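Postdoc handover notes: sequence design on the structure in folder B. Input tokens:
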């Protein structure tokens, strides 16, 4: 029988099971947010201390990237124990205190769940290494015999997503598979014990008052990895295989949805039902099952994040995702920045990619070689404009810590201070993700710009001072003020999950660079991504991302919220 558990603080937060549909969710990368004990690493007490800041910012929820015990082979996405807090970040008591403080401030809490792989220090993996081939302990992972007379060759030529081989030998002729770093062995999700254990983890955090889960690599859990290395496809065969039929050996297999149906049953044991958002890098047409109310309920849509700031592509992406949301019954999710990509204030300041496909990754990860010159002012202007428009779209908005400060990527972290495995596994090619994970500047001076009493685990450049909360607080023109106003107004204006496109006139064909829409209550939004000014389709200006022209028109690289 299903037990319905009461959320202890239902007094301050409603039981509304749809709270997430149009929520603004702020992603905290805990090690880089606020450091309460001066060890250079952000922690949970640091988050608690900043609850007033988060409340004033006006977000509805926070999502915490992993804070679990970890050797940090992949920034915490290598989890040693799913039901504990890393001692450097605090204790379970600190976690409870943080959740209570966030809830008391009216903020929901989403935690990151990393089910595809454990770390190599997880008790299960240690047991697997200490156990013989064929044991139940090894069957929780994807161990296979190597090729060659003594298994000295990998079972296949598969590569890891971070670069380098996707198999690691353990010294007895067996190898284990890893999608990511070698310190992140993949679990075997066809094993019922693995499935059961994660249900216990979902309950563990849900019982502690967590409102939802962000599910890492949600499309990769269940794999069809032949028992015999001779039957494994080559990497080229894998790459040539479609991922659109639910039958690819490694990605987006239909069986993964059985797992999420089981999770859904757990979510529904709680009131309000726990929520989840899938990090599933699948084709847009394949997101609906992850977002279904019989599954995780919502799925990230990274389409805007991957696109150049171009009105036609933005409009096509928005229309497509709103249609998809309507079909799945979920709401869509908008994201420009997160802990895996170059901050959008920097991306938008990069030279245009044009048709040069070799630059396909440039907008994501600055190449480790010659750095393109970033036009910082333009990047920030476009980021402010695009974000203001995004915050008015139907659906949920995911914001990444620091973007409310207009923070730029830090491209030039010295080699010796780098942490990200994607940097180390792709020498000279990939600048990795450390540049968006540098601890936040809270104050204009002090040892780590107010991040903590001492230094910061990734070095902050001197120019961080200008972006500090202290420098922006109270400044009507600052990016922080823009986010605060936008989030406050968004609460007032929020309405049905639909929009109508508007046509806007612009001199010299500027209209083609413009995106304009209206929500059901008359909330109008214009985003001008071109350089020429356009007319405003309304008289009451509610908020603008930059100054309007003296003639009252909307200049290029600016967005505005209006009422007709
Ligand atoms: C996606 C996470 O966002 C990323 O940071 C991590 O490296 C991989 N999944 C592996 O867990």
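Designed sequence:
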């Amino acid at each position: 029988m299903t037990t319905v558990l009461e959320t202890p603080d239902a007094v301050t937060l409603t039981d509304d099971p749809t709270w997430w549909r149009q929520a603004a969710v702020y992603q905290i990368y805990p090690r880089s947010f606020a450091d309460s004990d001066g060890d250079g690493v952000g922690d949970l007490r640091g988050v608690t201390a900043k609850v007033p800041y988060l409340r004033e910012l006006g977000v509805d929820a926070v999502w915490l990237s992993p804070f679990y015990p970890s050797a940090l082979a992949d920034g915490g996405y290598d989890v040693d124990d799913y039901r504990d807090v890393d001692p450097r970040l605090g204790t379970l008591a600190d976690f409870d205190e943080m959740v209570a403080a966030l809830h008391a401030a009216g903020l929901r809490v989403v935690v990151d769940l990393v089910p595809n792989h454990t770390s190599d220090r997880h008790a299960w993996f240690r047991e697997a290494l200490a156990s013989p081939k064929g044991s139940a302990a090894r069957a929780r992972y994807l161990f296979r015999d190597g090729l060659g007379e003594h298994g000295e060759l990998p079972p296949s030529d598969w590569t890891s997503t971070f670069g380098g081989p996707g198999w690691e030998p353990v010294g007895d002729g067996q190898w284990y598979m890893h999608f990511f770093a070698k310190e992140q062995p993949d679990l075997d999700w066809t094993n019922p014990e693995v499935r059961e254990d994660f249900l216990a983890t979902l309950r563990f955090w849900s019982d502690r008052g967590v409102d939802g889960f962000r599910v890492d690599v949600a499309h990769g859990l269940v794999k069809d990895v032949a028992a015999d290395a001779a039957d494994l496809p080559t990497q080229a065969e894998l790459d040539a295989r479609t991922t659109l039929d639910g039958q690819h050996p490694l990605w987006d297999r239909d069986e993964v949805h059985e797992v999420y149906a089981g999770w859904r049953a757990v979510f529904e044991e709680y009131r309000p039902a726990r929520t989840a958002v899938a990090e599933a890098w699948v084709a847009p047409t394949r997101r609906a099952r992850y977002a279904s109310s019989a599954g995780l309920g919502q799925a990230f849509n990274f389409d805007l994040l991957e696109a150049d700031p171009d009105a036609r592509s933005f409009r096509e992406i928005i229309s497509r995702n709103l249609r998809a949301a309507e079909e799945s019954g979920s709401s869509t999710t908008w994201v420009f920045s997160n802990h895996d990509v170059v901050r959008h204030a920097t991306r938008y300041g990069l030279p245009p990619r044009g048709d040069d496909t070799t630059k396909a990754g440039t907008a994501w990860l600055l190449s480790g070689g010659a750095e393109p010159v970033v036009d910082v002012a333009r990047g920030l202007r476009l980021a402010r404009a695009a974000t203001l428009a995004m915050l008015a779209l139907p659906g949920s908005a995911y914001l990444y810590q620091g973007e409310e400060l207009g923070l730029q990527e830090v491209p030039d972290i010295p080699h010796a201070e780098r942490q990200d495995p994607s940097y180390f596994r792709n020498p000279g090619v990939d600048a990795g993700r450390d540049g968006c994970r540098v601890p936040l500047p809270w104050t204009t001076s002090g040892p780590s710009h107010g991040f903590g009493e001492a230094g910061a685990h990734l070095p902050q450049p001197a120019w961080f001072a200008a972006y500090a909360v202290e420098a922006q607080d109270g400044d009507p023109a600052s990016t922080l003020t823009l986010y605060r106003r936008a989030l406050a107004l968004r609460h007032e204006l929020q309405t049905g999950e639909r929009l109508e496109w508007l046509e806007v006139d612009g001199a010299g064909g500027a209209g083609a660079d413009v995106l304009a829409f209206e929500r059901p209550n008359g909330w109008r939004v214009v985003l001008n991504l071109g350089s020429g000014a356009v007319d405003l389709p309304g008289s009451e200006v509610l908020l603008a991302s930059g100054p309007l022209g003296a003639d009252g028109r909307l200049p290029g690289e600016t967005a505005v919220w209006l009422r007709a």
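Context for whoever picks this up: Residues 22 and 494 are 8 Å apart (CA to CA). Don't rerun without checking with the PI first.
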